[in-house]
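DM from R.C. (forwarded with permission)

"hey, sorry to bug you on a friday — could you get me a structure for this? deadline for the figure draft is monday and I only need the backbone to look sensible"
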Amino acid sequence: MKFTHATLPQRVVFAAGESPAAVAAEVEALGGSKVMLIASDREKELADPIAKEIPVVLRHEEVVMHVPVEVAGRALRTAVDAGADILVSVGGGSTTGLAKAVALTTGLPIVAVPTTYAGSEATNVWGLTEGETKTTGVDDKVLPASVVYDAGLLTSLPGEMTVASGLNAMAHCVDSMWGPRADPIDRALAQEGIHALASGLPAVADDSTGVEGIEQTLYGAYLAAVAFASAGSGMHHKICHVLGGMFNLPHAQTHAVVLPYVLAFNAPYAPEAEARIAQAFGSRQAGAGLAALREVLDAPRALRDYGMPEDGIAKALGPITKAIPDNNPAAVTDENLTALLRAAWAGDPIN
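My reply, with the result:
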């Protein structure tokens, strides 16, 4: 073995039903006395009990998918004007992403309280969208100092969003098998993450209020994000980031649709990764294991269902090709990438 692995410093608290007290303890431990609480109006009922336990100087509700630069700019200005010394985010990936955008400039610590399985809370990756272009980067300033996972906050997550968000986490695992910096530790974390998600998601789909299933899925989503933060963004995420920014597609659903096509594209050229993924699913083949899970979950199937235009395939081809890492297991050509995108757009069966 010859590799270098970086482990990101972060406190992780699992506290089902206890997020107000847990968040208050994390804020106090970080020395926070002026909290900017970021939570959209959709998350108000979840954020209110937390707000009562922490010293809030500002509540910020403007949260927009893909974090447009103008939205980030307004959040930054309000944080500075309020004299905030710590950020608490309650919400999904867009909410965490906005907190990261503020932290990127201010360096303020973040306590993240996820209400989906997005995984952004466990990475040092930020993303901002300007026009049709989504830019991502890596900076340790945006890594939340603490994460509080409270399964009780996800019992009201709609079933369709649970499935899409969970498969987004699954995509973190799969991409971590062959990301640009992937190493044996990342693959081990990703394999366990796939196993946890494959057992947790059907349980949550069957009973969306079941805390045990939610915690298993959160555990898998956390492992997925940790692996992804180390391995780096591979082919799958590059495709989804370009499409999401260019056509304003919903983040989780886009990942859920594209994942099986990228797995089928790369798996024949990455036998070790394919074997690990298959084993995690308890299946003879990785693709078959994912397909069986998607069938149980009635997963999203076609990009056209979420607003991607057919002529967007040709438009996105160049930016995606430019973004895909050089070490992708399978060689990428205009022809085979176009075929992948067309199949994902139409929701075609995977050969």
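R.C.: lifesaver. The first helix runs from residue 19 to 29.
me: no worries. The chain has a mean pLDDT of 95.
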